[in-house]
Amino acid sequence: MTAAHDLAEYSAIFGAGMAAGVMNTVVGSGTLLTFPTLLAFGYSPVLANVSNTIGLVPGSFSGAYGYRAELAGQRRRTLILSTASVLGGVLGAILLLNLPASAFNGIVPALIALALVLVVLQPRVGAWVARRRAEKGTVDRPGGGPLLWAGVFATGVYGGYFGAAQGVLLLALLGIAFTDSLQRINAVKNILAGLVNGVAAVLFIALSHVSWTAAGLIAAGSVLGGQIGAKVGRKLPPIALRALIVCVGVAAIIKLLV
């Protein structure tokens, strides 16, 4: 393998990591950029998935830091939902290390499609929920209630296993459960997705083989991309952000089915 080939490979992985950092911060599904890139350079699927998950962790928290202003006043709900993400991420990582890769192939596109329907309907559903709460004199529950916790846990399982479009699923669930703006919801999404990747990464480091070169390149790129994504995403109006979510989700479904 020549030095020029190495440089091209490393540049491509770093670039994919940066693009994934931007995408994960704004919407999610950055894995759909980094995972295929690693496969293209000859990494096995499990090694690519493990190294990719570890590499994207710093970018997740970089994006969350960029959205720190939108996290104001959301500490309690974030802490409550974080338990669901952590537990789900642990279970998902264990499943990845013990089940065949084909185990979730049938359900993943369906989950993403459901998430997109929820994202599209979220304004109407959210308005209906807000009216019902106003009529009854109730407000958002601090943690969104047991159904949301279960949904975030299930999303964490999926995220720990593979993770593509995890952010889309979280945005859909949080958008229906809370009456906050989409930008504030996105800030919580970044924390929850980062926790899922983080706990999965710890298990992968302890129990699986890792390509530290690939993980390091993705990490460096995703940290930079996370900051860029925070600057871009915070300026997008709700309708543009929702349209971007739908476009990314449709691309994710196509990618997983082809």
**Estimated share of beta-strand residues:** under 5%
Shape assignment: globular
- The whole-number mean of residue pLDDT values reads 83
**Could you tell me the radius of gyration in angstroms?**
18 Å
Output the number of helix runs.
10
What does the largest sheet look like? none
Euclidean distance between termini CA atoms: 31 Å
What structural category do the secondary elements indicate? mainly alpha
- State the domain count: 1
Percent in helix: over 70%
Q: Which blocks of ≥5 consecutive residues have pLDDT under 50? A: none
SSE arrangement, N to C: HHHHHHHHHH
SS elements, strand count: 0
Brief characterization of the structure:
This protein is mainly alpha-helical. 80% of the residues lie in helices and 0% in strands.
Polypeptide structure, described:
With 258 residues, this protein is mainly α. It has one domain (3-257). The protein has ten helices and no strands.
What tags apply to this protein structure?
about 260 residues, mainly alpha, 10 helices, about 0% strand, globular
Furnish the topology, listing elements before pairings.
Elements: H1 3-26, H2 31-40, H3 45-66, H4 75-98, H5 107-136, H6 146-161, H7 166-177, H8 182-207, H9 212-233, H10 238-257
